């Protein structure tokens, strides 16, 4: 960036400042998407240090997993809800990428995630993808990949059935709603791989369970999970 461009950039930033997507404060030059104060003080779960964390226990007996991780706790009316709403509905994919970078930095130093081969985001149905413009789980996966030695694979796991929103469904209804929704293409490409399956928000875990059960049909595949937020 030359000197004229730099001055122009600062002038535009003065008139139209970039805002922290968690608290709404103006960002300074070195900050990206989330201000430094929020970056340090978000409600982190530290699940990468807790193999028997609450989400892992929630999935015990339902699916065979190597490790389970969530970056943040989701609290209604809090900063995480603000971010997730903007990320999902306000066309701000950069939020997912930044949160993925933060999560990836944590997982890069966690023993259970050292041998991840492939990161697979939970896929959207093409109809939903067209409406939203991007897959929020894929944006999170991209950020993770920047900090981890693993590639993102968006072609192996696909959604073949459009489903209603899960928001107001019971745990059983969510499970029933996700039956036969996903399938795997070219399973031989994932044989013997350690896959990190990622989503945006975990509540009951039904979506990740449905995806994971399909992936675990592949011989020798090891499965771990990661998500941005956990809503109890």
Automatic annotation (TrEMBL):
<comment type="similarity">
    <text>Belongs to the ComF/GntX family.</text>
</comment>
<dbReference type="Pfam" id="PF00156">
    <property type="entry name" value="Pribosyltran"/>
</dbReference>
<feature type="domain" description="Phosphoribosyltransferase">
    <location>
        <begin position="139"/>
        <end position="217"/>
    </location>
</feature>
<protein>
    <submittedName>
        <fullName>ComF family protein</fullName>
    </submittedName>
</protein>
<dbReference type="InterPro" id="IPR051910">
    <property type="entry name" value="ComF/GntX_DNA_util-trans"/>
</dbReference>
<dbReference type="InterPro" id="IPR000836">
    <property type="entry name" value="PRTase_dom"/>
</dbReference>
<dbReference type="InterPro" id="IPR029057">
    <property type="entry name" value="PRTase-like"/>
</dbReference>
């Amino acid at each position: 960036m030359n000197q004229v461009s730099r001055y122009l950039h600062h002038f535009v930033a003065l008139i139209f400042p970039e805002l922290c997507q968690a608290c709404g404060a103006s960002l300074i030059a070195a900050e990206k998407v989330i201000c430094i104060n929020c970056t340090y003080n978000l409600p982190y779960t530290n699940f990468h240090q807790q193999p028997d964390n609450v989400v892992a226990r929630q999935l015990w007996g339902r699916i065979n997993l190597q490790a389970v991780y969530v970056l943040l706790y989701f609290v209604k009316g809090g900063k995480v809800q603000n971010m997730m709403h903007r990320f999902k509905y306000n066309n701000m994919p950069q939020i997912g990428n930044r949160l993925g970078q933060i999560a990836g930095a944590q997982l890069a130093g966690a023993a259970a995630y050292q041998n991840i081969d492939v990161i697979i985001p939970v896929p959207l149905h093409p109809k939903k993808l067209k409406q939203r413009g991007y897959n929020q789980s894929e944006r999170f996966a991209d950020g993770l990949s920047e900090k981890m030695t693993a590639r993102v694979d968006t072609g192996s796991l696909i959604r073949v059935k459009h489903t209603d929103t899960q928001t107001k469904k019971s745990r059983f209804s969510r499970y029933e709603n996700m039956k036969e929704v996903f399938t795997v293409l070219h399973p031989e490409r994932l044989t013997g791989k350690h896959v990190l399956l990622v989503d945006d928000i975990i509540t009951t875990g039904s979506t990740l369970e449905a995806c994971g059960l399909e992936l675990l049909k592949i011989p020798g595949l090891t499965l771990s999970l990661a998500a941005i937020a956990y809503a109890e």
